[in-house]
Amino acid sequence: MSERRGRSFEGRLRVLGLAATGPLAIVILLLLARGGWDRWEVVLAVAAVGGAIAGPLWLGARVAYTLRTISNLLGGLREGDYSLRARGLATRGALAGIVREINDLGDVLRHQRLGALEATAQAHRVIDALDAAVFAFDGETRLRLANRAGARLLGEPEAELLGRSGQELGLGDFLEGEPARLAERSFPGRTGRWDVRRSGFRRDGLPLVLVVLSDVSRPLREEERQAWKRLLRVLGHELGNSLAPIRSLAETLGRLFERDPRPADFDDDARRGLALIAERSEALSRFVGAYSRLARLPPPRRGPVDLGTLVRRAAALEQRVPVVVEPGPPLTARVDADQLEQALINLIQNAAEASLAGGGRGVRITWCLPAGGGFELQIEDDGPGLANPDNLFVPFYTTKPQGSGIGLVLAREISEAHGGGLELADRPEGGCRATVRLPGG
After folding, report:
1. Which residues lie below 8 Å from residue 55, measured CB to CB, with a gap of 6+?
2. How many angstroms separate the CA atoms of 74 and 292, rounded?
3. Which candidate, 130, 174, 162, places its Cα nearest to that of 148?
4. Sign of CA dihedral 358, 363, 364, 365
5. What is the spatial distance between Cα 397 and Cα 399, in angstroms, rounded to a whole number?
6. 39: Cβ contacts below 8 Å, ≥ 6 apart
7. Cα–Cα distance between 371 and 348 in angstroms, integer?
8. CA distances from 425 to 200, 318, 390 (A)
9. Residue 196 contacts residue 182 (beta carbons within 8 Å)
């Protein structure tokens, strides 16, 4: 708001003061003009007239000084100079209260700035100590901050990097697209596989984009090595279980064919041996097919799906035990309907088999909207509970004679591909509860 034109506040105060004392001065001057005053009376009258004129002028000057002092204090606070203090303006009254509040405000702001500076310095020390490369870009994709790891990665001092665009630095594609991803990239300072994370924050009121690059080449190689070892151990175990009896039976049948004359029960032994070979071959075929399905799981193709309809359709496929669907709130979820239905079918089958094994009454399914967002699907059974929780999600591990060992693994893979997760836990009242947590609605 612009200042009013005309006299200042202190000027108007002087005018008002003169207007209040002016009539008295005029009366005294008129009385002096009529005469009849002795010398001392004249001196007192002149002094009264001078006081009537000088008083308002002094008052205006004093008010102007006080206001300028307060203005300087507030200006110092606005400029960030919290060392200024008002002294001697007033010790009592309303003005003294204003001065104290301004001085206290300066102390508070000074302490807050010191705390902010210390926190910022600590944050910079922590960021510089990180092995991950950290970059911050402004709205024009110009680099505004880089830690030591980032400067080493790009092969130049931080001072020479600041102000350059993300495209110039080879980071432009990380400023758009998926905020979290894995990427293989060669930089002047290092080549590897990078875990890229992007987020936003504000500094000095300006929005910035934070990009963090973590080299995951070595951890991923170690994890891949361990995964291959686990997979080869499982494959070797399963193949051995199937091939060893097949080889033994083939050798036994071969010896029977070489005998002359053949035993009287040769035909029965040959049929039993061939049946066992066919059975083990079928088991091995199921195992390989299960592995292929797990390895070929595609990324989810999301679309709007009525959750209640999908749950009821999956529940209707289980006929061995009653499956009760207790409807939750109406919900249209953005998911891959085929994948989520397959995950539910696997979980319902597991729950039904657990219920049958424990002599239970059936399976219960419901869903809810937790406070943290997204939605949860719960599949409960009243079977014997979890026998070996450590091996729940080990691929191809199963305690069932005809099991493939990938049902729970596939359900978890589908849940995690949607950005959620799968959790299994024993129920206090008996049985097990499988909880599928998925984001969005």
Report:
1. 17, 21
2. 73
3. 130
4. positive
5. 7
6. none
7. 26
8. 37, 22, 12
9. yes
Strand partners of residue 181: 196
CA distance 441 to 438: 8
Residue of 393, 391, 381 whose CA lies nearest to 318: 381
DSSP 393-409: TSTT--SSTT--S-HHH
* Phi, psi torsion values for 136, nearest 5 degrees: -125, 130
- Asked whether the beta carbons of 260 and 266 are under 8 A apart, the reply is no
Residues 6+ apart with CB under 8 A from 110: 82, 83
For all residues of the chain together, what is the average pLDDT?
77
Largest CA distance in the chain: 173
Give residue 417's Cα distance to chain centre. 17
Cross-strand bridge partners of residue 438 = 375
Answer for the pair 386, 351: CB distance below 8 angstroms, yes or no: no
Q: Which two tokens stand for residue 156?
A: 């130049």
pLDDT tens, position by position, 349-358: 888 888 888 7
pTM higher than 0.70 for the full model? no
Instruction: Give 215's strand partners.
Output: 194
Per-residue pLDDT tens, the chain, 441 aa: give them: 444 455 666 666 666 666 666 666 666 666 666 565 656 665 666 666 666 666 666 766 777 777 777 778 777 777 777 777 766 666 566 767 777 777 778 778 788 777 777 776 776 777 777 788 899 999 888 998 888 888 888 888 888 888 899 888 888 888 888 888 888 888 887 777 888 999 988 877 788 899 998 888 777 667 767 766 766 666 666 666 667 777 777 787 777 777 777 777 777 777 877 877 777 677 667 666 656 665 666 788 889 999 999 999 888 888 888 999 999 999 999 998 888 888 898 899 888 888 888 776 789 999 998 887 889 999 998 888 776 655 555 554 454 444 445 677 778 888 888 888 888 888 888 888 999 999 875
pLDDT digits (tens, 9 = 90+) for 311-336: 998 888 888 889 999 999 999 999 98
* 14 CB-near residues (< 8 Å, 6+ apart): 56, 57, 59, 60
Contact 350, 317 (CB under 8 A): no
Q: Which two tokens stand for residue 133?
A: 């490369």
The closest alpha carbon to 432, from 363, 366, 370, 367, belongs to 363
User: Contact at 8 Å (CB) between 198 and 210?
Assistant: yes
